[in-house]
Amino acid sequence: TRTPVNVTVTGAAGQIGYSLLFRIAAGHLLGPDVPVKLRLLEITPALKAAEGTAMELDDCAFPLLRGIEITDDLKTAFDGSNVALLVGAMPRKAGMERGDLLSANGGIFKPQGRAINDHAADDIRVLVVGNPANTNGLIAASNAPDVPKTRFSAMTRLDHNRAVAQLAKKTGAAVTEISNLTIWGNHSATQYPDIFHAKVGGKNAAELVNDQAWLENDFIPTVAKRGAAIIEARGLSSAASAASAALDHVRTWFHGTAEGDWTSMGIVSDGSYGVPEGLVSSFPVTTKDGDYQIVQGLELDAFSRERVDASVAELVSERDEVAKLGLV
Ligand code: NAX
Predict the structure, then answer these.
(1) How many helices (H) and strands (E) does the chain have?
(2) Using an 8 Å Cβ cutoff, are 246 and 129 in contact?
(3) In terms of domains, do 77 and 204 share one?
(4) Is 166 among the domain residues?
(5) Whose CA is nearest to atom 38 of ligand 1?
(6) Catalytic site residue from 187, 197, 249, 255
(7) Is pLDDT of 188 > 80?
(8) Annotation-wise, does 12 bind a ligand?
(9) Is the ipTM of this complex over 0.95?
(10) Whether residue 70 has its Cβ less than 6 Å from ligand 1
């Protein structure tokens, strides 16, 4: 029988944690044949709530779940960790400046990056979900100098899945018929969901839709502002869909993209497509066995280029801000 994989989840007592943990334990992260041990990291005041979630996990009697450890200690949380899902973050509160938000999150992701560096297993893979996800990923990666940068990623898969769903609706296709969609840039309202290389049932999506007004005034803003629309409707931010996207992200990273298709991941830029090296930006990537490669050679016309550049400019300003704070 296989040795269990150690999966660390931060912010385990939060909303996303409550959706995520049960599905990890059910085998939806790594597959139906991979046993897991969960490490739940929380801040001290939320440990009791995390214990409540752990009691419910016990009560599910999941065959793949081989242990749960709950802690507020970074070393314990990341010791021997193989997969780390960094979900807990400092949310933006009313009146908070972006600098304050970045600084508060630096206080979380800098020590977590360091702890991953010092204690995680050699094969560690990290997904940052907590916002601002790209820049939090940059902070974590920068503070883990001994871990290859390619092990760190930030989540834009929810945006990717939202774009797939909207495109399917518009074209009347099934989501399974949609491929080669890309989210470029930051997981924020500046992100650029790109359908110019996407396919619907093998046909070019932009040509099939042939509706520039829908693309500009409906599709792009709907995808980019979906998080706000969910809050407006539900009174709470996206949780089950975010958890589902996190599972998709990690599963695709390990199990690979389908032949000819790709996915979207926030990753440390190697300079491809003019995105400054070192920024954590979303790209089209193919994946296999826990590694990824940026899809090269896609043409970006003026419309796409302008949008990619705008989102990347936002990432540059976030990076400059955290650099000033000594976080990267
Ligand atoms: P919640 O506020 O419900 O839960 C966050 C949890 O993190 C809390 O239990 C809190 O105690 C814990 N936490 C705070 N600081 C911590 C620390 N230093 N160590 C460990 N745990 C800590 O938020 P939830 O709805 O679960 O969302 C979590 C994060 O995901 C937020 O930052 C949110 O903005 C972000 N999201 C990112 C998405 C993406 O696509 N990348 C989409 C969904 C979501 O909005």
Answers:
(1) 12, 14
(2) yes
(3) no
(4) yes
(5) 129
(6) 187
(7) yes
(8) yes
(9) yes
(10) no
